[in-house]
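Hi again,

Forgot to attach this to my earlier email, sorry! This is the prediction with inosine-5'-diphosphate bound. I've pasted everything inline since the attachment limit keeps bouncing my files.
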Amino acid sequence: MEMTFSIVKPDGVKKNLIGEVIGRFEGQGLKISALKMLHLTKKEAEGFYAVHKARPFFESLTTFMSEGPIVAMVISGNKAIEKVRQLMGATNFKDAAPGTIRADFASDIEHNIVHGSDSTESASFEIPYFFSAMELF
Ligand code: IDP
Ligand code: MG
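Structure tokens for the complex follow:
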């Protein structure tokens, strides 16, 4: 059993893809262990993506992530980190495998619908950034 963290990004919420994304996770046998909708401030988005602060796209990314509501969730299951990353597809939707969320719905490299932790280390930072122990099931 492993836990990972995922977000339906503002573009995914705007495109009515909350149920689509959750359905793909549940369809692979993964469990939703925590779930909430919220609207990040710019500062909260910067804190979440602090690992990317030196990147040229940091400003644009954190503006995008704070421009509308998101759905944050914790996903549990065997190999949850890898399974969620596979369901998401590559960062750039042009490189994403057919049938992945990003291949099906992303509009550009930044507006790519979904976030998923890339390692146990990032999951360990990202889960408590959004959820307290009492909110995890
Ligand atoms: P990931 O979401 O697949 O883990 P990361 O490299 O961690 O990809 O980048 C975080 C997010 O930053 C991406 O999901 C995407 O929204 C955005 N991003 C990544 N690379 C670029 C880029 O080259 N230009 C603009 N936005 C980018
Ligand atoms: Mg990443």
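The helical segments are 10-14, 18-27, 42-48, 58-65, 80-88, 101-105, 120-130. The chain is about 40% helix and 20% strand.

That should be everything now.

G.
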